[in-house]
């Protein structure tokens, strides 16, 4: 297993070296994303094996694409609120740039309970798992498919869940790609704002305001409309509301910078952080995010599997 020795220093180096997405790129990314129509999201090139897996805290919907190869980790994805793995990750994994990765690594997409397309409503009185419990469901997924380790890719709420999973099970996580992660609990002002929004806004508007900034909603009307239609037509509103409540009730991850001689809570794997001014995670142009991911995997020591940089910026490994 390829492991970082000094966690924090490795994370800082990886973030500085492998993240081509900068805050100033968000406007360009938003313009390019106008060509992406989620209503026409194509299925993954390799049809995935879909399963409902029983775990410690209930059933979870999982799609495995490709065949796990030897001791190589599997890429495990987790989506944000208001999405599932299709709307959150199909634009990326369908891109030509990402095929260079997926031909060497299997991909395991996890949908939070009740968030997959066509999900049935939970029974009255159902207690939705907390964010901590959602993370505790993931070892069962790895066990079901016989997976030893993963490279996690999470967006928003999914990034939080994968970070908690890595803190709890460092031996199962070789690396993390965290897109717009918020490691902090919701503050009192955030809580009050969300309560007021819940009284005055319809559910699709609440989710859209989470995914897009005000400027983006003005400049990308068609994209925002596509997301709103997805929430209205494809997602179970009751189930979505439960997931939102779980995310809004999260606690601090309490990650600390390592100090010599002191016990600290910190990641034991390299982490790639992807952020933007106000762009939602899916606004990262697939080609740019795929390129960042290639560099990240290279830095983890997997260049021997033939993963290479783009022809535009090809480098000798």
UniProtKB/TrEMBL annotation:
<protein>
    <submittedName>
        <fullName>Protein NDRG1</fullName>
    </submittedName>
</protein>
<dbReference type="InterPro" id="IPR029058">
    <property type="entry name" value="AB_hydrolase_fold"/>
</dbReference>
<dbReference type="InterPro" id="IPR004142">
    <property type="entry name" value="NDRG"/>
</dbReference>
<comment type="similarity">
    <text>Belongs to the NDRG family.</text>
</comment>
<dbReference type="Pfam" id="PF03096">
    <property type="entry name" value="Ndr"/>
</dbReference>
């Amino acid at each position: 297993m390829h492991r970082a020795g000094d966690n924090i220093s490795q994370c800082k180096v990886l973030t500085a070296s492998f993240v081509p997405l900068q805050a100033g790129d968000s406007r360009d990314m938003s313009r390019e994303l106008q060509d992406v129509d989620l209503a026409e999201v194509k299925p993954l090139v390799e049809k995935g094996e879909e399963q409902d897996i029983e775990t410690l805290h209930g059933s979870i919907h999982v799609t495995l694409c490709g065949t796990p190869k030897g001791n190589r980790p599997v890429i495990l994805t987790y989506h944000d609120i208001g999405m599932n793995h299709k709307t959150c990750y199909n634009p990326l994994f369908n891109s030509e740039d990402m095929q260079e990765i997926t031909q060497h690594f299997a991909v395991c997409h996890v949908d939070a309970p009740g968030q997959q397309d066509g999900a049935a409503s939970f029974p009255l009185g159902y207690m939705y798992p907390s964010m901590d419990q959602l993370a505790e469901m993931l070892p069962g997924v790895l066990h079901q498919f016989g997976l030893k380790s993963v490279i996690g890719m999470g967006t928003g709420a999914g990034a939080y869940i994968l970070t908690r999973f890595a803190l709890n099970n460092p031996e199962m996580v070789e690396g993390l790609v965290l897109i717009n992660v918020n490691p902090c609990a919701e503050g009192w002002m955030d809580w009050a704002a969300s309560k007021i929004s819940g009284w005055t806004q319809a559910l699709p508007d609440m989710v859209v305001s989470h995914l897009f900034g005000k400027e983006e909603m003005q400049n990308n009307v068609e994209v925002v409309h596509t997301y709103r239609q997805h929430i209205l037509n494809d997602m179970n509103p009751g189930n979505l509301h439960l997931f939102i409540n779980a995310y809004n009730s999260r606690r601090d991850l309490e990650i600390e910078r390592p100090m010599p001689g002191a016990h600290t809570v910190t990641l034991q794997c390299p982490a790639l952080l992807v952020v933007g001014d106000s762009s939602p995670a899916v606004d990262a142009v697939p080609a740019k995010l795929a390129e960042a991911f290639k560099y990240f995997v290279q830095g983890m020591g997997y260049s021997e599997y033939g993963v290479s940089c783009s022809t535009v910026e090809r480098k000798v490994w």
